[in-house]
Amino acid sequence: MKLLVTGASGFIGRNLLLRLPKDWQVVATYSSDGSFLDFIEEQDLNCVTPMRIDLSDGGSLAQVTDFFKSYDACVYLAANGDPAYSDEAPIEDLKSNTLALLNTVQNWTFGKFIYFSSGAVYDGLRGDVNPQSALAPCLPYAISKWAAERYMLHAQKSGKISVATGIRFFGAYGPYEPPRKIYGRLVRQFGISRNPKFTIRGNGQNLIDAMYIDDLTRAIMLLLDSAIQKTQTLDLYSGNGISIEVLVRQAAEIFQIEPQIEFVGSVPEFIEFQSNDATMVDEFNFHPEISLRDGLLKVYAWTKEQNA
To answer: Which of 52, 66, 271, 304 could potentially form a cystine with 207 if both were Cys, beta carbons 3.0 to 4.6 Å apart?
Structure first.
């Protein structure tokens, strides 16, 4: 398997690289993370060839040698990883989420292409959603992700991709997650520091539905190994959606601490929807297996090891 992983230096990318078979030929793109090369060396990832490139710069992609322009498969993870930032910088978000994807599929060719979109495309909807839902997002991050989905389908129609899969992903947590993310913050504050004070932006009633990273990488491997040759869009979620406030209180209970919660301000991405798409179950027999308790305790153990 000759595989391209874009955005490989990010949280999901690093965990995926650790799971990939050692006999695969993997090209891993990254843009500016200076620690990524050290990560590859420390983890002894001999099958991985790192490629530092700005995917939003079409000229840079055009200059890449022919060997690096064609792949059996791609897991496309490159993106602006902060939906809230898109509200402040929509042009930068559009470059990161849409222009980069468009450049990639215009300049290179792929067999199976797995694009990580986001459940954020359902922005503004309430209740049950799925890929058949009518979309009308207003958050710039959701707009750029939805546009990238459409450009991926155009590339498949144009012959640049053989089989295209759009994953509307609802989130994950685990080792290497950015420090600003809520699951790691809960572990560090309640588990490591034993600090009961926790600030929630907004009223805490917006929903979150994330899975532990090992479940996610298992799902990606199922998609890569599947014999299904069908272009489609599907939702990938844990099925255990809860409000932010409930998440904080459950984490406090897991770490046996009485939380002192402060609510401040508001959030640009207020989620009131949950997916009922059964594609991952019906077609790929995928069920998340790691509970919130076990996942947070895994993050706790990993964080302690890193601190040591």
So the answer is: 271
pLDDT in tens, 231-259: 999 999 999 999 999 999 999 999 999 99
Q: What is the DSSP letter of 120?
A: G
Please give the model's pTM, rounded to 2 decimal places: 0.95
Partnered with residue 5 across adjacent β-strands are: 28, 75
3-state secondary structure of 238: coil
d(CA 11, CA 288): 18
C-alpha span between 110 and 276 (Å, rounded)? 30
Pairwise CA distance, residues 37 & 33, whole Å = 8
Mean pLDDT along residues 268-287: 94
Residue closest to 232 by CA, chosen among 240, 220, 223, 241: 223
> How much is the pLDDT for 194?
97
